[in-house]
Amino acid sequence: MTLFQPIQERSELWRASHQFAKAVASDLNVTLEIVSIDDDTRDRFAFKKLTLDTLEGQQGRDFVISLLYGGGEYEQLEIFNRIGIPFITFNSSLGPKLLKRMGQPRQQFKHWIAHVSPDEFDAGAKLVADLINHKKGKTIAFLGGATNSVVNRHRIQGGLKQAKLESVVSIPPIYTDWSEQKSIVAAQTLLKRAPDIDMIWTAAPEIALGVSKVISASNHDAVVGSFDWTQTNFDLIKQDKLQFTYGGHFMDAGWTLIMIFDYLSGVDFENELGNLILSNLEKVNKSNVSQASQRISSSNWSAIDFGQYSKCLNPLRKKYNFQLPID
Hints:
- This protein is an alpha/beta fold.
- It is about 45% helix and about 15% strand.
């Protein structure tokens, strides 16, 4: 199997995704090739070349897992489908208009077996609601990632909608390149222009880290929320510099491997899960950060037999249960 995902050195999220997928593949005795999407191929044009160079005219691959890049989703599905290897897309957030054009998996693109992604709209809204309930504030700012990121856009859309429902003033979203340094500059500018901000919603750990440094240096009392289960965010929560983070989706590639393993063995997950599968991002705050830390620690995964999650390997299993045990 071949997995396309961003280079693991780029962020804690993708490093955890890489490690978790490898752990699952090992227990399933599956050969997993991870093709890293580095900074030079993080757009739809370069990604097209990467996929063609990797897959065209080469034998031995029975399945592909890949994210999609904003603006090129339809063309990317055409490429994967033309190559003729069954594939599942993951992580990328797909909106209603895009789905209307592409159709559902197994329809227009017969080799497109399923799409697995977090419910970004829902998580974006929940994070706003949590910040409002915690702070009882009146003004919220949104610090997002790259403007061309669909995941980023959908998270912000969900957050803005919730802020409007709760009659909270929203500062127009500010976009970064996902980096800590850019986020520091953005947060400094934000607090100068709008010093009365109560709440700051951030789209990723690196952004939350930059914002927290600016808040600490300026003695501001704004509360901060973010996304992703990473050690950076967990440390910020323990230090009371971050109130909430939604995540757990680093496991999606690994869980998808189990679904594919069963599918190739004649047990089709569509009967239970469908082919457009939304995973829920789970909330971590100070009350459960210690438990969540156990779940992201690769040192604990060696004690787990991921084969137990497969229906094919466990004929008595009636439903999938993609949850890690916590000691």
